[in-house]
Fold these 2 entries.
Entry 1:
Amino acid sequence: MFKDIGRKLIFMLTLVLCLQSGMAMAVTSEDAIQGYYYYWITGNVEQGASPVYPNGLTILIYDEENGHVWTDSLARTTIAADKYMLNSFDSFAPYEVGKKYLVATIQQSGWGAGPEQVTISGSGVEVLNLTMVEGGGVVPEEPPSDVPTGTIPLTIARDPNNPANILISWNTSVPAYRDAEIYMLAGDGSGTFTNNTANWIMVNDPAVSALFDDPNGLADGMLVFLGQFGATSTAPEAYFKAVQTRYGAYNVDPATGLQYLEQAWAVGKFDVLLRRFWNFVSVPFLTSNASLNTAYGTDIFTDGDEAWKINTSVTPSLTEMTSFTGATNWQGLTINAGEGCMIFMKTLPQGETRTMTVLGEVARSYSSRMAWLFNLMGNPYPATFSNFSLGSIPPAGSGQDGDEIWSFDPATQTPSVSSYRNNAWDPTVPMQSSNGYLFFRKNNDPFDWAPVPNY
Ligand SMILES: [Ca+2]
């Protein structure tokens, strides 16, 4: 952080000297060490025959990749007094020295300036004068997805290079996604996800930066969350979002009225403690039919451990679906968000626990069919509902007399039941993230369960 500020100050100072001395600028040794190329492209934009005045137009320097010009190119600025100055420091420097880039205005009403090539020399200021022409300029594209403006979609997985770590990554082949700021939200393990930006913190903040390997090194599209998978985990729940730096995480997107950080999609990790014998669990993330091997891992289980789910291939019934063995792991069994699963830890000593870390994307909506009789379910969101009847669990009018919800306390190996009567659950049951529940639809029709997240 301080190094960045220092670099920026050196750069600003160098620029001032450069402008005062007629733009004869030398590269400082600091530049060479850092590998950042302080570089300005500047010039005039003549109006020419254009009915569109250049002042106020946006001008870009961009790397034309596969014929695309992305909305968020390397750097951009606004033309003022017929002049522009594109600053490499406002981009995700370094540029590639010796490579040709393009400079152009965004086209407006069919008129624009450029594109014209500029070769990055790695030092000094390049002067490139442009003239508005009909058909000139560029029409940039949006990044290739439906992600919210100014944000970057993340993926989360176990680190293939070190299974104790978690790898957060994003697609830097999209130029806009190289401009990343990564934010984290930590929780106590009870299901505390929120989009409220007050609780989020940038990963290079000294308060959390030690949890990561090189939290400032984001140009590779990868961030390693150290020691947070399984036994060595110290953060029982944690979430990540990414925004594009130039938008400003706390600025408001005029199209949605939300802060860019607020509307970014999230991924996360959640630790589930397993105890001796029966555990009733669920995955509070979108997993799209993740295999149990992926969702639950394999290293905390031993031969003879069991996974039980509802077998829908016959009359719905609670069925042992697979036994764990070191040779076959969990075989082909899969788990989805909102699905409950009973795990039997056969050989785990009394009083010991095992940490099962689950990873995935935080769901923004959810729906599943509740069948007649047995439904093993879980909260599909990493945020606890205080009451099953809230958030349409089940939707108003869908719970009917005779329905039952069974919870299970793995510490005491004790089940408890709540019955639906007089339009309410008796007693009320909080729906905790990562717990599993048995919803027993005794007499009534199936229905679509679509709880609304309370983020
Ligand atoms: Ca990195």
Entry 2:
Amino acid sequence: MTDDDEVPVPLPDEIDSEPPSIEEIVVDGEVEPDQIYNGDCLELLKALPDGSVQSIITSPPYNIGKSYETNSPMEEYLEEHRKVIEECYRVLTDEGSIFWQVAVTTRDGHHYPLDVKFFPIFEETGFVPRNRIIWPKSHGLHGRIRFSCRHETMLWFTKTEDHYFNVDPVRIPQKWPNKKSYQGDNKGEVTSNPDGKNPGDVWDIGHVKWNHEEQTLHEAQFPEDLVERALLSTSREGDLVLDPYAGSATVPVVAQDNDRHFLGAEKEYKYWKIAQLRLAGVPDKNGNYANLKLLREAGRENSSEYGYHRRPAEPQEAEEGQKTLADLSED
Ligand SMILES: C[S@@+](CC[C@H](N)C(=O)[O-])C[C@H]1O[C@@H](n2cnc3c(N)ncnc32)[C@H](O)[C@@H]1O
């Protein structure tokens, strides 16, 4: 447990600064939920009972040299994750789902969409493919030898054919809500579902970038709204939701806000601490919250001062071979 980040993350007295051990998370073979393990996700996964988790929603390291990851050869990276994916399969309920959100990595100027690389691993593990969700983005590195990449993806697989899926809590407004049938028995009746439509597989939800309302010091946070759609459609109240790469705890925060139980693993202590702060709903010195629900309840969504232990405004110097958000080009 180290705390060597240049942006200190002090925890208030009411938050225990000692992360739980595996023995405190799985007691006599039973899960004690609503905790985040500060360590390797494979250790946590191996300790979890079979069929104990309803939904896994996660974004693993992309292997692009961010501060929390090593830049491994592709095959090595994929094989490491195969072990995690196999454990995820074991711990899911028969009705369970996994969402695996990734982007692309470049090697020697070549473009590798990570979902394409991961897809066969999920199939070989026995997962049933459900959707390849496109998550568009309006910003990013500028391509010099190709079109600039402007989307990420989220693969959705289920453990079996009999998966739980409820689209009702995640319906979006109809494009033509008052359109009426012009012939037949239903002539004159509204043709579309008044409760809204299925949101489809292109999820145009804003990314967490510099100055985003949710931004913490984590450099690869995904937005609560993206997680909420996956969580609400594949789990019920009281179910257990897991993020093996929890980061700043976006998935646990959304689970908690929606009356689900959560578990997470995060190897970096500084992110584990941010997670505790977000989950506790403790405001920063400006009275603002990193937890979006609390932020919105406090009417702060338009504030320019929100944020919570945010990253320094100036991106840090990149290590050799490491990319930062300051990089202007993919190659
Ligand atoms: C892409 S980020 C996830 C960010 C998260 N979705 C959020 O919204 O904050 C991946 C995270 O996985 C963590 N990580 C990488 N390898 C890990 C491992 N083997 N076990 C646990 N955490 C790991 C990294 O430290 C990083 O915080």
